Amino acid sequence: MSSDQFQFTRPQALTLTAGVLQLAFGWLDLFGLDPNYRVVQLGVGVMGIVMAWRLGLARMYGLLLLLGFGMLALSLDDVTTEGFLGVRTALLGLVITLARPAKRAPS
């Protein structure tokens, strides 16, 4: 997914995908979540869609997911759906942060 003027890297594609999925999960309430957590998912989804357009911002989004949702998951005392989703989102942030952009194909 690249052209001479615009390159869309793997971290950016992962960020866009994560943002869209977070937005969908928050909007559709697939897991019967707490309404406050749904608002967080909607905000994180919009933030992912917006931050996907630059590689540096996509990496920052991954780092924010890793730190924010990792701290949330570690602070919970019992196993809940929100805790599981927090761990999943933190791991997704780790993948976005560590993903390497694709090498440019030879012309």
TrEMBL record:
Superkingdom, taxonomy of origin: Bacteria
Annotated TM spans: 60-77, 83-102
Alphabetical UniProt keywords: Membrane, Transmembrane, Transmembrane helix
This protein's name: Uncharacterized protein
Gene source species: Lentzea kristufekii
UniProt lineage: Bacteria, Bacillati, Actinomycetota, Actinomycetes, Pseudonocardiales
